[in-house]
């Protein structure tokens, strides 16, 4: 291997032999000579997994961190040691150097192309702390402590956002689906909105419960804005950004590894943060610094940029949505056509294209289903710990072959357990 030809690797090649130029020492400076160790090490190997995919990659149905496009991972691998002739890895270079400056600017430009984000009206921020940090950042930046805001809660993440907002403003619960176990989305006409609310907040896709907004409500206050947590369906389909004041998303579902959070913020909403707002949560600080106020998650942003390139090469988000609709349709058809063996509790009109939760009629078989699927190279199918059951997350990068393999396994499993 080329890496072993460097001078620094001599001891790796000749671990039991002295250097060709063994130094000599005077008697009073003899080096300490250690006795051979008697400690033995036993290698710990993970249990074998039976893979039935074309190579050594498995189908990863995790909700996040989630599967990434194979082409992106291979490109990153090829550029990892020496990024485009710079002599450095992308993980080593300064975030203020010309190389990374080009990376982050290209990532932002491609994201603007994908979502048709107007340059003059919206800032694109690459942040840290996950969407959970934005639960606090949104009210801190958009309203004063005494201001009213509205929340539509369609799942666990919407509920967490609502509870966090209560610390910083007067948050009103416009609607909650908790009594129906978060299986539906309300009629927008029936929402109980505060006419003075500064914003209306939704979670566009609930990762745990598999409920997705197919269209979006309008705040009753004409001066209010719509805010959306789009973590688990970000860049899975076209979105009219102009309908929103703020869109935020943890990247680790559809567009990158964990570590970076993307916020798209209307510029006229920036600059009015509450005095108590921590500097790292102030949108103006990050907008004025072009997301470089402090050291950003450079490698994660680089991967996001590669993913954006890949989505554009696929033909943009209209084509991506077509692929996602096809994959989800195949899986939901298998569930609905199982005669009740598999059940998806979510109302059909709002079923997520990204996260498909289901249960088995015989709940005692769910553990066996998950274990046998893993042996066939399909992992992370266990439902969230708060709800149980099975969940298949089929984000952009999940290939059609993965869904088809899962459906074939489901039919075979059912046939073996009448």
TrEMBL record:
The entry's keywords: Amino-acid biosynthesis, Aminotransferase, Pyridoxal phosphate, Serine biosynthesis, Transferase
Q: Which cofactor does it need?
A: pyridoxal 5'-phosphate
Residues annotated as region Disordered? 1-34
Instruction: Report the record's Gene Ontology biological process terms.
Output: L-serine biosynthetic process
- Output the InterPro entries linked to this UniProt entry: Aminotrans_V_dom, Aminotrans_V_PyrdxlP_BS, Pser_aminoTfrase, PyrdxlP-dep_Trfase, PyrdxlP-dep_Trfase_major, PyrdxlP-dep_Trfase_small
Q: Where is the composition biased (Pro residues)?
A: 17-29
The biological pathway it contributes to is: Amino-acid biosynthesis; L-serine biosynthesis; L-serine from 3-phospho-D-glycerate: step 2/3
Query: What residue stretches are annotated with the Aminotransferase class V domain?
Result: 58-406
Q: Name one GO molecular function term.
A: O-phospho-L-serine:2-oxoglutarate aminotransferase activity
Q: Give the catalysed reaction(s), semicolon-separated.
A: O-phospho-L-serine + 2-oxoglutarate = 3-phosphooxypyruvate + L-glutamate; 4-(phosphooxy)-L-threonine + 2-oxoglutarate = (R)-3-hydroxy-2-oxo-4-phosphooxybutanoate + L-glutamate
Q: Where is the composition biased (Polar residues)?
A: 1-11
CDD domains associated with the record: PSAT_like
Query: Gene3D superfamilies per the record?
Result: Aspartate Aminotransferase, domain 1, Type I PLP-dependent aspartate aminotransferase-like (Major domain)
| Enzyme Commission designation | 2.6.1.52
Any Pfam family from its record, for instance, is Aminotran_5
GO CC terms in record: chloroplast stroma
Q: What class of enzyme is it?
A: transferase
Q: Which family does it belong to?
A: Belongs to the class-V pyridoxal-phosphate-dependent aminotransferase family. SerC subfamily.
Q: What HAMAP family does UniProt report for this protein, alphabetically?
A: SerC_aminotrans_5
Q: What is this protein called?
A: Phosphoserine aminotransferase
Q: Which organism is it from?
A: Ensete ventricosum (Abyssinian banana)
Output the lineage of the source organism: Eukaryota, Viridiplantae, Streptophyta, Embryophyta, Tracheophyta
């Amino acid at each position: 291997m080329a890496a072993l030809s460097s001078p620094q690797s001599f001891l790796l090649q000749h671990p039991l032999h002295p250097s060709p130029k063994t130094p000599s020492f005077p008697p009073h400076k003899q080096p300490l000579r250690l006795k051979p160790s008697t400690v033995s090490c036993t290698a710990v190997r993970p249990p074998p997994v039976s893979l039935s995919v074309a190579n050594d990659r498995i189908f990863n149905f995790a909700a996040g961190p989630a599967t990434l496009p194979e082409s992106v991972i291979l490109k990153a691998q090829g550029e990892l040691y020496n990024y485009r002739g710079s002599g450095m890895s992308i993980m080593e270079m300064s975030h203020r150097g010309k190389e990374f400056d080009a990376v982050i600017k290209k990532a932002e430009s491609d994201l603007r192309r994908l979502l048709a984000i107007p340059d003059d009206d919206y800032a694109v921020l690459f942040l840290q702390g996950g969407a959970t940090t934005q639960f606090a950042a949104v009210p801190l930046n958009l309203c004063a402590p005494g201001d009213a805001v509205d929340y539509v809660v369609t799942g666990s993440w919407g509920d967490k956002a609502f509870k966090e907002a209560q610390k910083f403003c007067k948050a009103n619960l416009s609607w909650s689906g908790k009594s129906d176990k978060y299986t539906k989305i309300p009629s927008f006409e029936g929402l109980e909105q505060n006419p003075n609310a500064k914003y209306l907040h939704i979670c566009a896709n609930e990762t745990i419960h598999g409920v997705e907004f197919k269209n979006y409500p309008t705040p009753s206050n004409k001066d209010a804005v719509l805010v959306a947590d789009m973590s688990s369906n970000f860049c899975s389909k076209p979105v009219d950004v102009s309908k929103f004041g703020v869109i935020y998303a943890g990247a680790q579902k559809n567009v990158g590894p964990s570590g970076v959070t993307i916020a798209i913020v209307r510029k006229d909403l920036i600059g009015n943060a509450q005095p108590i707002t921590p500097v790292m949560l102030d949108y103006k600080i990050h907008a004025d610094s072009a997301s470089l106020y402090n050291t950003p998650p450079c490698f994660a942003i680089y991967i996001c940029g590669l993913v954006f390139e890949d989505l554009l090469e696929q033909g943009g988000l209209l084509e991506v949505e077509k692929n996602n609709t096809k994959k989800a349709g195949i899986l939901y058809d298998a569930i609905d056509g199982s005669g009740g063996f598999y059940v998806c509790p979510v109302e059909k009109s709002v079923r997520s294209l990204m996260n498909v939760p289901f249960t088995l009629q015989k709940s005692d078989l769910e553990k066996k289903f998950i274990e046998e699927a893993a042996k066939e190279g399909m992992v992370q199918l266990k439902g969230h710990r708060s709800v149980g059951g099975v969940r298949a997350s089929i984000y952009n990068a999940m290939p059609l072959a993965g869904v088809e393999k899962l459906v074939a396994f489901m039919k075979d499993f059912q046939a073996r357990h009448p």
